[in-house]
Amino acid sequence: MSSTAKRFRAGIVGGTGYTGAELLRLLVNHPEVEIACITSRSEDGTAVADMFPSLRGHLDLKFTVPDVARLAECDVVFFATPHNVAMRMMPELMAAGVRVIDLSADFRLRDADVWAHWYGETHTAPDLLAQAVYGLPERNREQIRQAQLVACPGCYPTAIQLGFLPLLEDSLIDPNQLIANAASGVSGAGRQAKIPMLMAEASDNFSAYGASGHRHLPEIEQGLADIANDPVSLTFVPHLLPMIRGIHATLYAPLRDPTLSLKNIQALFEERYADEPFVDVMPAGSHPQTRYTKGANYCRIALHRPLDRDVIVVLSVIDNLVKGASGQAVQNMNIMLGLPERAGLEGAALLP
């Protein structure tokens, strides 16, 4: 092995969607990792660079049918698949000792019955739910380091949990009166033909959806309850923005102590995230925009207290495909493999 050879081999299951494409973009530039295989049953034999010409000159691989024996030769395997795919392959991969990062929802919830309720089918690997580590590094870094199976958080859950986390850890807010209004670009719906995501439908429009109950809600409440060490109640309303990338979450919570100043809350956030490489607490009074994180693995947060009333407002923005999916998956991989956490993720946000 030459001095320039990469140390670790990564496999990707299901690489034809947006999260798969984003994983490829990040991994081809990773200093310590090479992509060993990428799978797609429908695109078997197709050159990756033919499907994604942006990768011409960066990756010389073809899509192949998923094969556990070949995947088992990798140091880490990513699942960038729709829900219900990873859980069917996971028992065999786990038995082979493969370390896996699942970007789907298959292992985010610990209760198989709750999962079945929200995803409309029976979970096929319920025994593995307890083994999965929830891959929010800012909360579970040490568990991630030792994990064999990491369940990468969803995009909305990432932005919302990071926004509420310091407040719940210090019991500064009422956990039973949490509100999250969050809006996402159309790429959050995946790379498939859906009428609401067509340019003529989504452009010049703004709409809510899933207001009566969204499948990310149980994941968010589970994570927030873990942080608070107590049950929480969250009103979560997602919205669709007429843009491609980005999530903007506006979070509201009543303060337990109305005499607590915004200055003290700002200091709490700055201290809590001081050593976190991918969370940026902006100056008090800032209004972060989605373009501040476009293409980058950052969550940017700002705090407000309107009219000094007893409600704290947290603004939390991420790129749904990076910190909300593939970037966070690479961050988890770096932790699992003992690599510098920033490796392959140093890029600044794109502007414009």
From TrEMBL:
GO MF annotations in UniProt: N-acetyl-gamma-glutamyl-phosphate reductase activity; NAD binding; NADP+ binding
UniProt keyword Amino-acid biosynthesis, yes or no: yes
Catalytic activity as recorded in UniProt: N-acetyl-L-glutamate 5-semialdehyde + phosphate + NADP(+) = N-acetyl-L-glutamyl 5-phosphate + NADPH + H(+)
Keywords from the named record: Amino-acid biosynthesis, Arginine biosynthesis, Cytoplasm, NADP, Oxidoreductase
Main location: cytoplasm
Compartment(s) of residence: Cytoplasm
Superkingdom of origin: Bacteria
Pfam family, one: Semialdhyde_dh
GO cellular component entries: cytoplasm
Pathway named in the protein's UniProt entry: Amino-acid biosynthesis; L-arginine biosynthesis; N(2)-acetyl-L-ornithine from L-glutamate: step 3/4
PROSITE patterns: ARGC
The EC number(s) this enzyme carries: 1.2.1.38
GO BP of this protein: L-arginine biosynthetic process
InterPro entries: AGPR, AGPR_AS, AGPR_dimerisation_dom, AGPR_type-1, NAD(P)-bd_dom_sf, Semialdehyde_DH_NAD-bd
Residue ranges occupied by any Semialdehyde dehydrogenase NAD-binding domain in the UniProt entry: 9-147
Active-site residue numbers: 155
Task of the protein: Catalyzes the NADPH-dependent reduction of N-acetyl-5-glutamyl phosphate to yield N-acetyl-L-glutamate 5-semialdehyde.
NCBIfam families linked to this entry: argC
Stated family: Belongs to the NAGSA dehydrogenase family. Type 1 subfamily.
Stated name of the protein: N-acetyl-gamma-glutamyl-phosphate reductase
Species of the source: Isoalcanivorax pacificus W11-5
